[in-house]
Known about the structure:
Strand content of chain B: 25-35%
CATH class of chain B: Alpha Beta
Mean pLDDT of chain B: 89
Low-confidence stretches of chain B: 182-187
CATH superfamily of chain B: Hotdog Thioesterase
Oligomer: heterodimer
Order of helices and strands of chain B: EEHEEEEHHEHH
Distance between the termini of chain B: 18 Å
Shape of chain A: globular
Structural class of chain A: mainly alpha
Amino acid sequence: MPTKDEVFEKIRVALVDALGVDDDEVTPEATLVGDLGAESIDFLDIVFRLEKTFDIKIPRGELFPEDILTDSQYVQEGRVTEPGVKELRQRMPFANLDEFAKNPVVQDFGSLLTVADMCRFVETKMEVSD
Amino acid sequence: MRWYWIDRFIEFESGRSAKAVKTISLAEDHLHDHYSNHPMIPNSLVIEGLAQTGGLLICEYKQFAERVVLAKIPKARFYCEAIPGDRLIYSTTIEYIKREGAMVTATSYKENELHAEAEIVFAHLDDSRHDSLFEPETFLRMMRLLGAFDVGRAADGGPLVPPKRLLEAIDAKDRNVPESVSRGTRL
């Protein structure tokens, strides 16, 4: 059973390999898009590396629920509606959506996910010790 | 200039791996600019050759139904030069194929010497962007020209064969081309 520190270290390696960033840029607070420069194609690469590294399966949309952000039921005039935010919280229990919920502009959503969120996401998929 | 950066497939295992040959010749114009006194194949064109080897492998696995394009190179390392007269062997292995894209790992060997290695990510484009890019038949024609069906093996171990629907589509297109134009050019 890996520890949380081991999970972080492995995620750091995956992000360094996928994004070509330096080790020290990958901090728990760093955002994937804003700080580490991830683009949409990178998420495919990152998901593959996480699956391989941790021997887990990550179905499409589980880490980054893009289907909600393109669903007119949940998005109006470029903003995620209240039911949409509720759905996001349910689908992304590993991410802190409090700041986003204050001004839920769809365009800002991509910059939300941090390395710490990704660690929590992986921790939900496997048994991890402190 | 024709955009072929491999000369021939020498192995092709559907859904798994492919190996192709690239022979470097002084007849290639661009080598005289890269560099005039020291011609060598540009690394970017080695990447393109590796991408063609792996990209056609992905295309075939998807039965030529997807527009497969080079999207990202997470890793590329070059260890030596390749010059006119050298014969490079490009090997690619599928790491994963998902609905949105795929990744291959790739190596280039010069005789027994590792020349380059890379990881290459491909994207599958959606319907809205089809018009401006290759038709699936283009990839199939490349496969035939490069001998993939001469050496290829299907997933069940049998000979690799092109999808019937694409063969029919190509035949139908060729029938519409005047004979004087199509003679000698049909692949």
